[in-house]
Amino acid sequence: MEKKVLMNIIGISTGQGGQHSNNYLLLLEEMNGNRRLPIVIGVFEAQSIAIALEKVKIQRPISHDLFKNFADAFHINVKEVLIYNLVEGVFYSKLICTDATGEIEHEIDARTSDAIAIAVRFDAPIYVYEFILKEAGYIVDENDNITPIQSHTEEESEESTSVESKTSEDVSENLKTLSLEELQQQLQKAINEEKYELAAKIHQEIERRKS
Question: How far is residue 181 from each of residues 2, 7, 25, 188, measured CA to CA in Å?
Fold first, then answer.
């Protein structure tokens, strides 16, 4: 059975200005470890997660609050959230739910951003499979240096100049040669194509230059 790793939410960073202002980066960190997993999410999901984390009181329930109220009314509990797959940069998650007795479990497929927004409202733990963390995560040392956990190779076209045609290590090096404007263009392209792992790496490079 694939190992599950318990994760914590350590922050949500805003996107860039202009056409990139609707992009946010949700950062998860391994419990009792130094591995991190970045996930690009939309503005609504980012706001919803932030509202729940900060326990902000709002006048009317938003979608994730409505899910929580509905579940409470029928004594349904979200036991945990599991990020169980990563395909072409897209994370796949599911809610592990129990009925009022706590004995019957149901697995419900969900977008990762929605699943995490719901997990926060239920105080449910967030897990990710080890292979996903190895593929898409990175390590931060005591000097805040970032190191990919595992480089992986993708097919490369000789005519392609796009950063996604490189290995993970080559991507990081290639990003350093691009201007901020070029990075923002590549970020938008990656998001449009739902290549969120690549988008996260580009976002990290943009944030590195801002710091």
Answer: 40, 33, 19, 11
Q: Which of 43-57, 85-99, 132-146 has the lowest mean pLDDT?
A: 132-146
Amino acid at residue number 78: V
Category of 167 on φ-ψ map: left (φ > 0), alpha (ψ -120 to 50) or beta: beta
CA dihedral 149, 152, 157, 160 (to 10 degrees): -10
Largest Cα–Cα separation, the chain: 59
pLDDT, one tens digit per residue, over 62-84 is 999 999 999 999 999 999 999 99
Question: Residue 108 and residue 70: Cα distance in Å, rounded?
Answer: 15
How far apart, in whole angstroms, are the C-alpha atoms of residue 184 and residue 16? 8
Structural domains of the chain, with CATH: 4-135 (3.10.690.10), 146-210 (no CATH)
